[in-house]
Description:
Distance between the termini: 71 Å
Oligomer: single chain
Strand content: 15-25%
Order of helices and strands: HEEEEEHEEHEEEEEHEEHHH
Low-confidence stretches: 1-9
Shape: globular
Helix content: 25-40%
Amino acid sequence: xxxxxxxxxxxxxxxxxxxxxxxxxxxxxxxxxxxxxxxxxxxxxxxxxxxxxxxxxxxxxxxxxxxxxxxxxxxxxxxxxxxxxxxxxxxxxxxxxxxxxxxxxxxxxxxxxxxxxxxxxxxxxxxxxxxxxxxxxxxxxxxxxxxxxxxxxxxxxxxxxxxxxxxxxxxxxxxxxxxxxxxxxxxxxxxxxxxxxxxxxxxxxxxxxxxxxxxxxxxxxxxxxxxxxxxxxxxxxxxxxxxxxxxxxxxxxxxxxxxxxxxxxxxxxxxxxxxxxxxxxxxxxxxxxxxxxxxxxxxxxxxxxxxxxxx
Length: 311
């Protein structure tokens, strides 16, 4: 409407502006305009020193900004009752880790949360009906990761797994204020904490796209400190045949890389890979390189010569 906009537009913009003013003290930010905002508000890259009076940018992450007493949900149904499955398709297609930045109602602080547990839910169920994220305000005591919980909801056919998942994001990984950022020591530590989380979460996203259902997760952390406890989370499906083909195809590139390195180095451990290469080939999971590697290693093993004999 000419001359008018809903007041929530300006309130939302003010939250984003405040978050930008705080986060820009430790990172290079690119704000995404309203017309091109499909779920993230900013691109973020931590800034690091690279010499005398010089700095550079490092890892990339995405930021979703929420202010006041916000809610963060994905999926569920819209006002017309249509399932919002497109929100999960959007999440699954992200190639950079996603973080939540919240601004308090008094515009005093910015809290940053990692959204990595969402990918753990996706590994467990494929596509949920709905995800509801919660988080905590406590920054004084260490937080230990809590497994997402779920409850069955009334949903129509083909509405994902029919479950509403509750994801506890825990305590913020960072709590930032303009006052705290006036201290160089705090700024430097905040940059290192943010970089650490981006690096870990980037692996989670990369493995998701590589179809490797293993997450190296930060298990225990304290706000504004680098976590000192990690755990591995592995997803599996007990239904016969489920996911086997794409898991095998995800394995083949690494198998080839390892096999050819051991082969060219004359390392007889290469022969230990023959059974898995045979399994890959017998199930047609290989590619143009796997038959030749299998043939050459098998021949060298039969003749009891170096794996590097036939290359």
